[in-house]
Amino acid sequence: MVITVLTYSLEACVLYRKQLRRLTSVQLWHLRQLLGITWRDYVSDVEVLRIAGMPSVEALLSAANIRWAGHVARMSDSRLPKAIMYGELSLGSRSVGGQKLRFKDVLKRNLKIAGAAVDDWEELSGDRVAYREVSRRAVVQMEQKRRAEYNQARERRHNPPPPGEALQCPHCGQMCRRRVGLAAHVRARHRQ
Fold first, then answer.
1. CB environment 133-162: b (16+ within 10 A), e (fewer)
2. Is 175 helix (H, G, I), strand (E, B) or coil?
3. CA distances from 101 to 16, 44, 88, 151, 179 (A)
4. How would you classify residue 27: left for phi > 0, otherwise alpha for psi between -120 and 50, otherwise beta?
5. Which pLDDT does position 3 carry in this prediction?
6. Distant-in-sequence, close-in-space partners of 179: CB < 8 Å, separation ≥ 6
7. Is 15:102 a contact under the CB 8 Å cutoff?
8. Are 67 and 151 in contact (CB under 8 A)?
């Protein structure tokens, strides 16, 4: 019920990374409460989602975004949601610099993640069964991508660099992983 309330009508919204992080943190906080997992248990967010058997909010919203776009594409041309989605401004232009995300930008990103053809999604939406599979595939692909990113970051954190890449203190011989760490070590321990 919490996820339903949390994501109510967000399939038609454009969300940025900051907003997705906030939604994810709320989801994980509630899951940790339900599962009885505290911060002292040292359970990662990926593991919490695996234990709960749930996809992340980002994956759920990606699938909902794809489903909503297909629903609007199948509507008659006289319906307001379709007129707004396909409408163009008669005046004005996009400003120079970083642009605000549009619904179609988010939709294209989600379709690419799902492995669907970005140019042919409207024709594909006519076949409801095939299009439903695209939205399901979006959830699976998003979860695989998130787990892969988590595993790569964890490997970088927990595995020290090979001995040839480690930096050694010229004064005491202590090994440091990064140049910044070596500079801090020398400054703190070997002041002259």
1. ebbebbbebbbeebeeeeeeeeeeeeeeee
2. strand
3. 8, 30, 15, 29, 38
4. alpha
5. 80
6. 167
7. no
8. no
Q: Is 1 exposed, middle or buried (0-12, 13-18, 19+ CB in 10 A)?
A: exposed
| Both tokens assigned to 177 | 């992983």
Within 41-127, where are the H helices? 45-52, 57-74, 80-86, 103-114, 121-125
Q: Computed from CA positions of residues 71, 74, 77, 78, in that sequence, does the dihedral angle turn out positive or negative?
A: negative
**Structure-block tokens of residue 127:** 């076949």
Encode the chain (192 residues) as per-residue pLDDT tens digits. 778 888 888 888 888 989 999 999 999 999 999 999 998 999 988 999 999 998 999 899 999 999 999 999 998 989 988 888 888 777 777 778 777 888 888 999 888 888 888 888 888 888 889 888 888 888 898 889 888 988 888 887 777 666 657 788 888 888 887 778 888 888 888 875
User: Can you read off the two tokens belonging to residue 98?
Assistant: 């970083």
